């Protein structure tokens, strides 16, 4: 049996967008597994809040105000983590945004904004961290894709495209860096009750002409395991993929969605 609480001991993890939701739950999970955690987050207050909670678990934490869409911020993030901790073992590319619109209403601005945060930043954050992992000959990257990256949706085409791009870059990065001792995987959550879900339900409900509550009720009913997803459901699987227990797993897009998607 693995020794829960120490399998990431001595490791250093960066969680982007760790100020709330899935990122916050992931920061706490990695800390419980023994890692020190860097919360790289746009919202400085949220970053501080999570860092405080991580310290409460007994791990070291650094709150690092970071906009993952800015290459200068990513460079600064890597330099600071190296200076403070000396290594980077885990990168969780979690920061993401959501917007709904019917295909005919999607603007260039909508497309570019979603792709810049959800896809482009995942690649360039990985590119910024990879040289450190290559030098260590060890590292694990876990990206937040989504069930949306495996299926079509009528009301949020750019979001789905961005998450399919994450699935794709996960595979290419996994192949490119397997020889360096680096594993790259992504998780594909379903309907996770976070602030993002509040926006999903409101925006998609509006597009469909139903209330946010009715939208959520219908979605919850569609989940085979019979309930909405918790941030902790996702964090547990990210913790596994980040750890040596998943040492023979790379290039995978693992559904964590209560049974919603059973292909691909
Ligand atoms: P959330 O909106 O609750 O949290 C997202 C966090 O990312 C926020 O703290 C936000 O400040 C941060 N962020 C946004 N843009 C950023 C930027 N440019 N730089 C740094 N930080 C930034 O969302 P969540 O539900 O916790 O989602 C986390 C991830 O999981 C996202 O990638 C999302 O697409 C994915 N996901 C969510 C669901 C869901 O149902 N909630 C389902 C599948 C996948």
Description of the structure:
- Strands 3-2-1-4-5-6-7 form a 7-stranded parallel beta sheet, with helices on both faces.
- It has 2 domains: 214 residues, Rossmann fold, CATH 3.40.50.720; 38 residues, no CATH class.
- With 264 residues, the protein is of the alpha/beta class.
- It contains 8 helices and 7 strands.
- Helix 5 links the parallel strand 5 and strand 6.
- The two termini are 30 Å apart.
- Helix 1 runs parallel beside helix 2, helix 1 crosses helix 8 and helix 4 runs parallel beside helix 5.
- The protein is globular.
- Bound molecules: nicotinamide-adenine-dinucleotide.
- The site of nicotinamide-adenine-dinucleotide (NAD) has 29 residues, from helix 1 and helix 6.
Series of H and E elements = EHEHEHEHEHEHHHE
Tally of discrete structural domains:
2
Broad structural category: alpha/beta
Strand order of the largest sheet: 3-2-1-4-5-6-7
C-alpha end-to-end distance = 30 Å
Low-confidence stretches: none
Strand content of the residues, in percent?
A: 5-15%
Note the overall shape.
Answer: globular
The CATH superfamily of the largest domain is NAD(P)-binding Rossmann-like Domain
CATH architecture of the largest domain: 3-Layer(aba) Sandwich
Helix content: 40-55%
Number of strands: 7
User: What characterizes the major β-sheet?
Assistant: 7 strands, parallel
């Amino acid at each position: 049996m693995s020794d829960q609480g120490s399998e990431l001991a001595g490791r250093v993890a960066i969680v982007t967008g760790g100020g709330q939701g899935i990122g916050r739950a992931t920061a706490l999970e990695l800390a419980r597994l023994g890692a020190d955690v860097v919360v790289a987050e746009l919202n400085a207050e949220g970053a501080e809040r999570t860092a405080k909670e991580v310290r409460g678990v007994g791990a070291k934490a650094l709150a690092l105000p970071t906009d993952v869409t800015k290459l200068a911020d990513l460079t600064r993030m890597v330099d600071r983590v190296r200076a403070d901790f000396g290594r980077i073992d885990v990168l969780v590319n979690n920061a993401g945004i959501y917007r709904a619109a019917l295909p005919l209403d999607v603007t260039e601005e909508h497309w570019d904004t979603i792709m810049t945060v959800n896809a482009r930043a995942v690649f360039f954050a990985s590119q910024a961290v990879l040289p450190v992992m290559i030098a260590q000959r060890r590292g694990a990257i876990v990206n937040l894709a989504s069930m949306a990256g495996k299926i079509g949706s009528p009301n949020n085409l750019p979001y789905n495209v961005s998450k399919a791009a994450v699935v794709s870059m996960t595979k290419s990065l996994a192949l490119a860096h397997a020889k360096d001792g680096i594993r790259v995987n992504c998780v594909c959550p379903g309907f996770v009750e976070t602030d993002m879900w509040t926006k999903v339900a409101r925006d998609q409900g509006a597009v469909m002409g139903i209330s946010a509550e009715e939208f959520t009720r219908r979605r919850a009913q569609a989940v085979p395991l019979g309930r909405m997803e918790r941030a902790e459901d996702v964090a547990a699987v990210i913790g596994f993929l980040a750890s040596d227990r998943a040492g023979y797993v790379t290039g995978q897009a693992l559904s964590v969605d209560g049974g919603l998607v059973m292909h691909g």
